[in-house]
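Hi V.,

Quick status before I head out on leave. The structure for the redesign project is tokenized and pasted below; the design run finished overnight.
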């Protein structure tokens, strides 16, 4: 394990703001203090002197707040996505924005996607209901080699899920904005708008792991669903705004889709009484596909800050022009 990053030459410990309008970010404080007992931390409702703050650790930060920190050197997301940061038009564009990049996050997402594919492919929701009712009834058994999985989004998370599914015998394809020349053997690649219809036509299960941008917002909507084989399964493990709720319900009601597994929904938490609840053709999980441990968040934030303060650029920085 690498040593904790040291303070800059001034000798002053870094002052880090924990900023979120939806989470109590103070759960991260013990992890930072374990690495740097002298760490200074502040929250959005008690920032003190904004000039003290050199790093902001964020999940859906308060709009307009980041631009009030004049000495900010790093904006760090606690997740793999940074769309919640770029959603604020006032984000200072000269400050690096970094996503979380941690092996445990990849493992978590891979296991979630593999579970979601198998859960529907092997009809386990039916078996759960039958077990509760004392019904012994076999559902169709289709070998993985006859089940086609398409993954929209071939970044680090998408590629790991594709490899895992392929190793289990599934027929896997993937789609990305631009060509991926070094895809693993057995994984078919599609790219760009012209490649999307071909990918969708061959998808018994469609997995959305896209970054959220203006181009991908609403990706899981009527247009996409219309290209899928009738009765297909859709998994949203990306962002809630990838999904058009009314289009999903219409596609399920018409039989164009057979099932949906949703870890990300347009409203979070999903309110009681929402149309997604209590449907046998929708499985909702509360945005738990993968989580980064607090210790890993603290370590990576301090490592990235040390790189920036030394005049470098962390590897996990996002591209502001692309939005991810």
């Amino acid at each position: 394990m690498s040593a904790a990053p040291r303070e800059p030459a001034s000798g002053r410990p870094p002052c880090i703001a924990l900023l979120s309008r939806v989470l109590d970010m103070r759960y991260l404080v013990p992890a930072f203090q374990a690495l740097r007992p002298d760490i200074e931390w502040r929250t959005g409702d008690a920032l003190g002197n904004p000039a003290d703050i050199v790093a902001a650790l964020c999940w859906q930060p308060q709009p307009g707040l980041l631009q009030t920190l004049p000495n900010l050197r790093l904006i760090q997301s606690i997740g793999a996505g940074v769309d919640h940061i770029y959603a604020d038009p006032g984000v200072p564009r000269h400050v690096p924005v970094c996503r979380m990049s941690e092996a445990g996050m990849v493992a978590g997402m891979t296991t979630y996607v593999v579970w979601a594919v198998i859960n529907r492919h092997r009809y386990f929701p039916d078996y759960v209901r039958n077990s509760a009712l004392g019904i012994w009834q076999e559902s169709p058994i289709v070998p993985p080699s006859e089940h086609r999985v398409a993954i929209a989004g071939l970044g680090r998370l998408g590629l790991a899920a594709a490899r895992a599914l392929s190793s289990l015998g599934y027929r896997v394809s993937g789609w990305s904005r631009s060509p991926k020349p070094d895809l693993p053997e057995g994984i078919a690649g599609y790219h760009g708008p012209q490649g999307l219809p071909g990918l969708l036509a061959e998808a018994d299960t469609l997995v959305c792991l896209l970054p959220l941008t203006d181009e991908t917002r609403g990706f899981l909507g009527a247009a996409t669903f219309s290209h899928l084989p009738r009765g297909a399964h859709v998994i949203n493990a990306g962002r809630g705004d990838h999904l058009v709720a009314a289009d999903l319900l219409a596609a399920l009601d018409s039989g164009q889709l057979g099932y949906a597994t949703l870890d990300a929904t347009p409203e979070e938490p999903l309110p009681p009484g929402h149309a997604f609840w209590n449907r046998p053709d929708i499985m909702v999980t509360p945005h738990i596909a993968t989580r980064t441990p607090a210790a890993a968040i603290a370590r990576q934030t301090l490592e990235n800050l040390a790189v920036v303060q030394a005049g470098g650029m962390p590897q996990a920085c996002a591209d502001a022009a692309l939005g991810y």
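Above is the designed sequence. The domain at 105-284 is CATH 3.40.50.720 (Rossmann fold).

G. will cover questions while I'm gone.

Best,
W.
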